[in-house]
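Re: duplicated header lines in exported structure tokens

Our pipeline writes sequence and tokens for each protein into one text file. With two proteins the header for the second block appears twice in some exports. Here is an export where it did not happen, for reference. First protein block:
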Amino acid sequence: MPTVAPLDLDGHCIAAAWLGSVPAFAMADGLVHRLDNGHRTTEAHDGLLAAVPSLDGKTLITGGEDGRVCVLSADGAIREIAHLGRKWVTALAAGPRDAVAYASGRVAHVRLPDGSVKEFAHPRTVEGLAFAPKGMRIAVARYNGATLHFPAAAGKPVELEWAGAHTAATFSPDGNFLVTAMQENALHGWKLADGKHMRMAGYPAKVKSMSWAPKGRWLASSGAPAAICWPFLTKDGPIGKAPVELGTRGDAMVTCVAFHTTDEILAIGYADGMVLGARVADQKEILLRRAGNGAITSLVWDGEGQRIAFGSEAGDCGVIDVAG
């Protein structure tokens, strides 16, 4: 049976992460808590708005109301890599070779591997950022679609249009698709080779969490009383296909999803704090954590796929050892 090591903190957990083998919990008040031979705390920001792990899983990138972008190491050391003055850093993305994208207002900034910074202004607020899995390319989620930039090269960006507010973006692991979450209880996708649209609608709530299966065959999402998993098994992705629903509950909405590092097993967090595990192949479920305080806001597997760090909007955090 899975075992849970709880960590009760104050406030909203923006992101849980693994810094190597050390679980970390980035909170809205700007504190990052680490379980490293005891409970240790680093003050990263005066108000934290976004946090994402680096691609190598060794550091946590954070952005805050203080206009700073920082990198936190497993030992608690913190390094500032950008400062935008009084502007809030509202979105982050981690890229290859320690590249970092960060946004404030209508401007997206990309810090390239050599330390130089490129800026990209947009007509409306930048809502979400994502790096492509191959090459130096970023997607900006914005009002009425998404924009693709190539920060290290000259040339015009690629505009992907679809009416409505797009609030987050994610590339498929093979780089063939871009999917955005929308303000209007839907996902929207583009097949990048030919611009075909993928409408993924019917959610009763906004989609605030998306996670790709390790080989990119499925995209899991929150926003319903089950985890909605869209099939990307063919070259046209989910066009004309129905999703698979995992972890269906009539009494609580799914608020967070996270696929296992190597297997098509999904960790599913709910509005009441419960966490389930579900396997795509046979939809078999296992209870990982009973209901607690506050909706689950973050779930992340460790590198070995044995433990899950979780956080909630009420500061109900901890680590689940799946093997017990």
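Second protein block, exported in the same file:
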Amino acid sequence: MANKREKVILVCKDCLSRNYTTSRNHATVQERLEVKKFCKRCGKHTIHCETK
């Protein structure tokens, strides 16, 4: 059986730097992932969203 998890890159909404990678199950989660994480470039916690 094939693995349905795919790698996604998270980008900061404020400074647009690509800081984090994670995986998500494409079969169950259709919308884009948004997580609040620490951005090293901004120096604060910001919303990071999935890139295209």
